[in-house]
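SEQUENCE-TO-STRUCTURE ENTRY
===========================
What this section holds: a protein sequence and its matching fold, both as plain text.
Tokens: labelled as protein backbone structure tokens, with as many entries as the chain has residues.
Question of interest: how does this chain fold, as expressed in backbone structure tokens?
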Amino acid sequence: MKVKIFDINGKSGKEIELPIQFNEEINPNLIKRAVLAISSIERQPYGAMPKAGQRSSAKLSRRRRQYRGSYGHGISRVPRKILWRRGTQFGWEGAFAPGMRGGRRAHPPKSSKIFEVKINKKERRKAIRSALSASVLKEYVEKRHLVPDNIPLIIENKFEEINKTKDVKNILTKLGLEKELERIKERKIRAGKGKVRGRKYKTKRGPLLVVSKECSLERAGRNLQGIEVSKVNSLNAKKLAPGCVPGRLIIWSENAIERMRKEKLFTNEIKIEKENKK
């Protein structure tokens, strides 16, 4: 597939051939597995304190002549702790057992639980290639974004040197993304308890800017709401298909495409080359 390269003024220039990574068959199920595997690693472990509700002595004898026992008191045989004592008279309160006030929970969440879902290396790379293939097809991208006809969007290398947010916005407007920029400006107040947990607003996911290396565009682009900037070697299925839905609008720098082609990123040829060198 041949695509045109645009300059920072939005004018088209020479044509280049896309790398083989964009020729993969689109597999939504595999993309979903890869995204969920990444999300599982990002989950925060949580759980009760292991000894919660078990830190009091609740041993209570039921034998006939046992001192401090509950024999003959006509009370149920649940674990109890002593709250007060007058001579040989004791005041007990239920403890330790589930259902007792101050007792342990029956099946508390445990912080030792492993949330991580694993995925094979070749499957993960295949999922990335599959998401890349969906990103160059308009029928997939227009389901998520308001896009012009000229996709995929590849911009000359000067794009990586931009260091002002307003310049990034101007370039995206010249590429025909003014409706997309209006769409991602919207934000809504979340329903539910998330409002008090530091995630009050829900924002829309916008274009992904892919660069070849660490550059000034990373700082300039991230100030625009909904827009992400990523290095080409740091791409994953979640960035390329947020919410497990393939077809994200991606804006590439020319160097990012060339680096993907040269280093054969996300292909199985990387491992073969390393083995041959040994």
User: Anything to note?
Assistant: The beta strands are 2-6, 12-17, 80-86, 89-94, 153-155, 187-189, 201-203, 208-211, 228-231, 250-253. The mean pLDDT is 91.
